UniProtKB/TrEMBL annotation:
Identification of the protein by name: Hercynine oxygenase
Signal peptide location: none
Pathway: Amino-acid biosynthesis; ergothioneine biosynthesis
Transmembrane feature ranges: none
Length: 467
């Protein structure tokens, strides 16, 4: 069972819908009956959503805490609207419950900055709406045939997709909590310490082909498919993500003042916005402090650096005489098992993520120290590839050979190849990512200027012929 979490409302008043009460492995469609897995996944997601909104009053739920984010009450009703569209209408074939809400909660029609001005449902209305939708979707889950003839319902895919969608919004809502000013409302126990052992700074990933992407993961999304062979030359990868201490050396060395380390667009962005350090850091005397979910605390040197944009990650890597790994390199390091030649679901094997493997699921409210989770190590020896922080890669977001949009273009297709702008791929998931939305094939993407996401990075270098 996962370690108990103490996200505030539950630590004060233990709730039956504790998001950590259910073992995430019970929501693994590989391990258990997909219908049962879908029910657990939906319940876990809803318990987390409630924990993120019930700790704030109505004014805080309707406020826009940052122009980068929606009011939390928008996320809440959007979760219900998407669930209604996909589970009640598409999977269940039932009439729409609240079709008039569709335009208000369509993420493409309403930019985040405009959402506070919309006639949104209030917090109580939004809660009642999502509960009504959930009742209907659980009825559909029990009654619908999970036939392979319908790819939407095969292996309960659409239910897994909706649970992942809700968890992804929960992660976005957690980012809103981080941007919000005001007293802390979330708490959780600290992550586990790293074992006292000397780790090599980098690990060698041998060259050769490996299988990237998947055809067999039941709830994998369209952009993770299809599986295909990719030849990746040998390379060295950091054993652990770049730490705050290492990043601080770059800051202290004047890294933000030296154009030679920066991508030209990154340099322009740094100058225009006066960036000097990761988001949420501030200097006080000789030390650096950070703001984290309402607490101001010294920057912990041993934790992976977080809240850096792609340009900062790229500049650090160049300063260090290294580079960011490509997405294929990252996935090969995370999945390729040289002993068998096959690709694993996760770095440690095919078992679903448990609390011993990775810092996932908001059990903790910060990354674990670099080197933690030895049981989650990959065959190459790299640690913390899943969990803790998202990791920027050097790759643009593109479709795999044979990519087919499913079940709708707006999930991935419109973002591929830069239709909506410049996107870099992030891999691995952060502490605020639920296991249902985290696997070694999972792909995230964002603009290279984004810093409010829970993103860090690790660096790589080419292997010499003699390595
Ligand atoms: Fe969404």
């Amino acid at each position: 069972m996962p370690a108990p979490s103490t996200t505030d409302p539950r630590s004060v008043d233990p709730r039956p819908d504790d998001p950590h009460a259910a073992d995430p492995r019970a929501s693994d469609p590989h391990a258990v009956d997909p219908r049962a897995a879908a029910r657990v996944a939906l319940e876990r997601a809803r318990a987390r959503t409630r924990a993120l909104v019930d700790c704030l009053d109505d004014d805080e739920l309707t406020a826009q805490h940052s122009r980068l984010m929606s009011p939390l009450v928008w996320d809440l009703a959007h979760i219900g609207n998407q669930e209604e569209i996909w589970l009640v209408r598409a999977a269940g074939g039932r009439p729409a419950l609240r079709p008039e809400l569709d335009p208000l909660y369509d993420a493409f029609r309403t930019p985040r900055a405009d959402r506070p001005a919309l006639p949104l449902l209030g917090p109580d209305e939004a809660r009642a709406f999502v509960a009504r939708v959930r009742e209907a979707s659980l009825e559909v889950l029990e009654s619908v045939e999970l036939t392979t003839a319908n790819p939407l319902s095969a292996d309960a895919f659409v239910f897994g997709m909706v649970a992942q969608h809700e968890q992804q919004h929960d992660e976005t809502m957690l980012a809103t909590h981080q941007l919000r000013r005001g007293p802390a409302v979330l708490t959780a126990p600290p992550p586990p310490a790293a074992p006292r052992e000397a780790l090599p700074a980098e690990v060698l990933v041998p060259g050769g082909p490996f299988t990237m992407g998947t055809d067999t993961e039941p709830w994998a999304l369209d952009n993770e498919r299809p599986a295909h062979r990719v030849d990746v030359p040998a390379f060295w990868l950091d054993t652990v993500p770049v730490t705050n201490a290492a990043y601080q050396e770059f800051v202290d060395a004047g890294g933000y003042d030296e154009p030679r380390w920066w991508h030209p667009r990154g340099w322009a962005y740094v100058r225009e916005h006066g960036l000097r350090a990761p988001l949420f850091w501030r200097r006080e005397g000789d030390s650096w402090l950070r703001r984290r979910f309402g607490h101001v605390e010294p920057v912990p040197p041993e934790q992976p650096v977080m809240h850096v944009c792609w340009y900062e990650a790229d500049a650090y890597a160049r300063w260090a005489g290294r580079r960011l790994p490509t997405e294929a390199e990252w996935e090969k390091a995370a999945r390729h098992d040289p002993a068998t030649g096959r690709s694993r679901r996760h770095p440690w094997g095919d078992d679903a993520p448990g609390p011993e493997h990775a810092n996932l699921g908001q059990r903790h409210l910060e990354p674990a120290p670099a080197g933690a989770y030895p049981r989650g190590a990959a065959p190459c020896g790299a640690r913390q590839l899943l969990g803790d922080v998202w990791e920027w890669t050097s790759s643009d977001f593109t479709g795999y050979p044979g990519f087919a949009a499913f079940p709708y273009d707006e999930y991935s297709k419109v973002f591929l190849g830069g239709d909506y702008g410049d996107y870099k791929v992030l891999r691995g998931g952060a502490f605020g990512v639920d296991p249902v939305a985290c696997r070694a094939t999972f792909r995230n993407w964002d603009h290279p200027i984004r810093r409010q996401i829970f993103a860090g990075f690790r660096t790589a270098r080419d292997a010499e012929v003699t390595d």
